[in-house]
Specification:
four-stranded parallel sheet; 177 residues; alpha/beta; 8 helices
């Protein structure tokens, strides 16, 4: 039987996983976490409720470890505001024993507060495609330091017509990530 200890996670992350009440990784987590930790590109398909978000958030928190600099090192793109907020809550839960800074960016509200949060320094940005590009094009997000890019529910983003924004995002993030 697999355990989260098998992934060589640090104590902070293992404590956060225990706090969340998880004892063993789900099949998608068992398959996705090792290659993500090794820096490989991964595409995961699994049903809702199988722990897909944790499958990429856990290794992301492990790789970033602690707050560093002003610019984001990870970008997670999500099709909807609701999902973006849910992902950010997951990050807070798993990064609880770290000083990692996450900001969620989405439309439907004025960008002022979100821009202020980004300017304070951020490690992980969770964003809807349109709002990310708006704030990026306004000059508030520096993408040179990005090491990790996650397209959550990429199929849904395509169905919703976000391909032009996704292509623009791919153009502005480092090729090596």
């Amino acid at each position: 039987m697999a355990s989260f200890d098998d992934f060589k996670f640090n104590r902070q992350l293992l404590n956060a996983i225990a706090d969340a009440g998880y004892t063993e990784p789900t099949p998608i987590q068992q398959k996705a976490i090792p290659p993500i930790l090794n820096g490989q590109d991964v595409m995961g398909i699994a049903q809702t409720g199988t722990g897909k978000t944790a499958a990429y958030v856990l290794p992301l928190v492990m790789k970033l470890k602690y707050a560093q600099g002003e610019s984001p090192r990870a970008l997670i793109v999500s099709p909807t505001r609701e999902l973006a907020m849910q992902i950010e809550q997951n990050i807070q839960k798993y990064a609880v024993y770290t000083d990692l800074r996450a900001v969620v960016l989405y439309g439907g509200i004025g960008p002022k507060t979100q821009i202020e949060q980004v300017k304070k320094g951020v490690d992980i940005i969770v964003a809807t495609p349109g709002r990310f590009m708006d704030i990026y094009l306004a000059g508030h997000i520096h993408t040179k330091g990005l090491q990790i890019l996650v397209l959550d529910e990429a199929d849904k983003m395509m169905d919703m017509g976000f391909m032009p924004q996704i292509n623009r995002i791919l153009e502005v993030v480092p090729v090596k990530r």
